[in-house]
Amino acid sequence: MSAVIRLGTRRSNLAMAQSGQVGRALERATGRTVELVPITSEGDVNRASLASLGGTGIFATRLREALLADECDLLVHSLKDLPTAPAPGLVVAATPKRVDARDLIITRDGTALEDLPAGSLVGTGSPRRMAQVRRANPSVEIHDLRGNVDSRMARVRDGELDAIVLAAAGLGRLGTEIDLHVAPRELDEWPTAAGQAVLAVEIREDAPEELRAGVVSLTDAETAFAQAVERFALAGIEAGCHAPVGIHAFLDGDEVRVRADVYAPDPDDSVLLDERWSIPSGIFSGDGYSRGSGSDDATAGAHLRAREIGNEIASRLLIAGAAGLVADNPS
């Protein structure tokens, strides 16, 4: 490994911004220079809708090929875009502290989503967000939407769309100034994608120990636990990362509250869960949890408890009828 650490990233403004943030943190942790290596993924060149592409892995596959081919030393992903199954030869070695995981409704005049007139155009490319918009206001029309944050907001500003749905995390990481009205949707009623607002730092399994140690030091243990609960649940119902599923784990002392919704075309057929599970005191002590393998006693307990909770959530959702709702969205 060279003296410079090569960090592979997608070319979008958001990907470059969040990779730059991780790169600066890694420079502080290791004392070495981090250089961004832009890589073009399928999701960056294929302009078809996320729903038609299936979503799973379209932003990650090319990056992972580059990492395995030693074109870079590590990758930064938006965790919500990663398949739940691990990639052979690679490991997500760090999940830095989660930022705001909420979705935002962006409008010109501040009209609430529920109050938009019939026929209003709401833009989003996410099947999960489409389902949530329809639940909130069945009279609006959904416009499939791709593109960067600025181009999406321009379509609201210019009157082409009446509203769009964006992630708060993306706007925050870009530092975008907004001249439109922003209305956050609270997570206990509008759960977002598993792992939304979490970054995943991925390395090769045979990465040098110095690099591994530097990357592992970036992990926030509570973020690692919460996203693991969410993604174990997602994997347990065999749903892809762009299936119509919203799930968010809230940590509250010695408990974790989980809101999980699996959306159906008919809102009355959707499967909803909102429950609490206990977690042992001191479960986030230790520094090895971020390896994802439970490599020491404290972190093994955290990883195991996250898996137990995630699997139990999946079981309850499946018993309630979720299997048929995600059948067309394999992970």
Distance, first to last CA: 33 Å
Overall helicity? 25-40%
Which residue ranges are poorly predicted, with pLDDT under 50 across at least 5 consecutive positions?
Answer: 46-50, 52-56, 287-298
Tell me the CATH superfamily of the largest domain: Periplasmic binding protein-like II
CATH class of the largest domain, named: Alpha Beta
Q: Kindly give the count of domains.
A: 2
Q: Structural class per helix/strand content? A: alpha/beta
Q: What are the secondary-structure elements, in order, as H or E?
A: EHEHHHEEEEHEHEHEEHHEEEH
Task: Please work out how many helical segments DSSP would assign.
Answer: 10
Strand order of the largest sheet: 2-1-3-10-4
Oligomer: single chain
Write the layout of secondary structure elements.
Elements: E1 5-10, H1 13-30, E2 34-39, H2 42-45, H3 50-53, H4 61-68, E3 74-78, E4 90-94, E5 103-107, E6 121-123, H5 127-136, E7 141-143, H6 149-157, E8 163-167, H7 168-174, E9 181-185, E10 199-204, H8 209-216, H9 221-236, E11 245-252, E12 255-262, E13 271-278, H10 297-319
Parallel strand pairs: 1-2, 1-3, 6-7, 6-8
Antiparallel strand pairs: 3-10, 4-10, 5-8, 5-9, 11-12, 12-13
Structure, described:
The chain is α/β, with parallel strands linked by helices and 331 residues long. The chain has two domains: 228 residues, D-Maltodextrin-Binding Protein, domain 2, CATH 3.40.190; 83 residues, Periplasmic binding protein-like II (D-Maltodextrin-Binding Protein, domain 2). 32% of the residues lie in helices and 22% in strands. The strands form three sheets. It has a five-stranded mixed β-sheet with strand order 2-1-3-10-4, sandwiched between helices. A hairpin with an 8-residue loop joins strand 12 and strand 13. Helix 1 packs across helix 7 and helix 9 packs parallel to helix 10. The protein is globular. 46% of the residues are buried. About 7% of the residues have low confidence.
